[in-house]
Amino acid sequence: MFRRKHHSSDHHENDQMRQKEKINELRVAMGQLSGRSLQFCTDTCLRRYLEARNWNVDKSKYMLQETLKWRSNYKPEEIRWHEVAHEGETGKLYRANFHDREGRLVLVLRPGKQNTSSHDNQLRHVVYLLENTILNLPEGQEQMVWLIDFTGWSLSNSVPIKTAREAAYILQNHYPERLSAAFLYNPPKIFETFWKIVKYFLDPKTFQKVKFVYLKNTESMELMQRFFDIDILPTEFGGKDNSPYDHEEFSRLMAKDDVKSAKLWGFDDTRSASVHPTVVAPESEPNS
């Protein structure tokens, strides 16, 4: 028994050594980086890209280079809440104030509360919340969970296929290994038509993370209980918390996070939310 445990330990250490070698190999292959690209490409970042491409350094390098190009042009770290706050007024997408049982942060999506029609603004809203969730991940935690509530959803108010396809592309190619699981809660029968199209945009790894959950299905409810504390889970997902989404409170939180993000990325954030009267400015904090 001791030998088996020792062998298992050696195997684990060898795996870690090989992974570290691959990370170093990818870093060398990426060449000289500077500025935000250098800050972005941490060892854990390189590990995610390698995992997404089955530890193939060449494929991981190409994937990461495409992300760096995208980030250079799209500048996701510079999007500010007051620029996308109108997209979130109905609570169609927000970062929850609770974690799953593994400590992962949760994004709540309510596609039935769609309130806009701008493809570009909808994507910027999604990207902003992805960046914000990553900004707030607990130490040592790399992934998030999505909870998708289909109350009120129909084909007439669904996200356009073009937007869904591009959002899936951004998530898979520029935020690899960030999604742990996506729970599609109580989708209506008609959603099958939409899903037949959308699922072809998903790579196999992402597809396997999508879990359909139904209110009257015992296995579904057991799955939710394995992942979440029912006492803090919103009632829309079979939990006991009936607290409504508070847009003003969430806006205050996001405004504070914008300041934190600006400091993290090393630039002065001179764009003020005060010129946008529909957004609540952050509460003043006492001097430290």
Automatic annotation (TrEMBL):
Residues covered by the CRAL-TRIO domain: 81-245
Entry-linked SUPFAM superfamilies: CRAL/TRIO domain (SSF52087), CRAL/TRIO N-terminal domain (SSF46938)
MF terms in GO: phosphatidylinositol transfer activity
CDD domains linked: SEC14 (cd00170)
Pfam families reported in the protein's UniProt record: CRAL_TRIO, CRAL_TRIO_N
InterPro entries reported for this sequence: CRAL-TRIO_dom, CRAL-TRIO_dom_sf, CRAL/TRIO_N_dom, CRAL/TRIO_N_dom_sf, PI_Transfer_CRAL-TRIO
Protein name stated in the entry: Patellin-3
Gene name as annotated: PATL3
